[in-house]
From TrEMBL:
Pfam families: FMN_bind_2 (PF04299). SUPFAM superfamilies: FMN-binding split barrel. This is FMN-binding negative transcriptional regulator. InterPro entries: Split_barrel_FMN-bd, TR_PAI2-type. PANTHER family: PROTEASE SYNTHASE AND SPORULATION PROTEIN PAI 2 (PTHR35802).
Length: 214
């Protein structure tokens, strides 16, 4: 299957560890789903659940509004799904080598995972209810577990279930690109981490990701 993420020939940024890719997808479930519509490429932002034990390479599951044509246009089509991890600007002023020779430029650090696979639309109400219950339970657990699908009146949820369509994407391939200054000497990586640390909370996730690559 063809790649669409540019990977420099030095290979520093390519991430192939499946567990690492799965972890980023779970930590950043709001994905960009790209398919080809009748007038060209279309991108939708959709929260997707990665189920590792469904299929050879795992499966992505979620739902979209019935009014969104993606579930009809992309039915059976190979789609591209992008999961965006932490990212941020890197100042050349953070590099120790700036003082040595000045041959430094700004860049951007980031971590992304790209998944591909055929999209299948699911209109089965029981499947949708099960998927919504599992998805809600997962995300509610992270915020204290204050709400469950059963907390809403049954007639209300039944009506809402009729307004959405499930989507399932068996993953055919996964590719990761973690551009985190791996191509820089240690003194420059130290400088980038110090610069990010000075920014505090806004850069904390990117700093943690950089340190994990050490």
């Amino acid at each position: 299957m063809s790649r669409s993420l540019y990977q420099p020939s030095h290979g520093f940024f390519q991430q192939q560890d499946a567990a690492t890719l799965h972890a980023l997808m779970r930590a950043h479930p709001l994905a960009t789903l790209v398919h080809v519509g009748p007038h060209g490429p279309v991108a939708d932002v959709v929260p997707l659940e990665f189920v590792a034990d469904a299929g050879e390479h795992g499966t992505l599951r979620g739902h979209v509004p019935r009014a969104n044509p993606v579930w009809q246009q992309a039915q059976g089509q190979e789609v591209l799904v992008l999961f965006h991890g932490p990212q941020g600007y890197v100042s050349p002023g953070w590099y120790a080598t700036k003082a040595e020779h000045g041959k430094v430029v700004p860049t951007w650090n980031y971590a992304v995972v790209q998944a591909r696979g055929p999209l299948r639309a699911i209109e089965d109400a029981a499947w949708l209810r099960t998927e919504l219950g599992r998805l809600t339970a997962h995300h509610e657990a992270a915020v204290g577990g204050h709400w469950a699908l059963e907390d809403a009146p049954a007639d209300f949820t039944d009506k809402l279930l009729g307004a959405i369509v499930g989507i399932e994407i068996p993953v055919a391939s996964l590719e990761g690109k973690f551009k985190l200054s791996q191509n820089q000497p240690t003194v420059n990586r130290d400088g980038v981490e110090a610069g990010l640390e000075a920014q505090g909370a806004p850069a904390a996730a990117l700093l943690e990701r950089m340190r994990a690559t050490r």
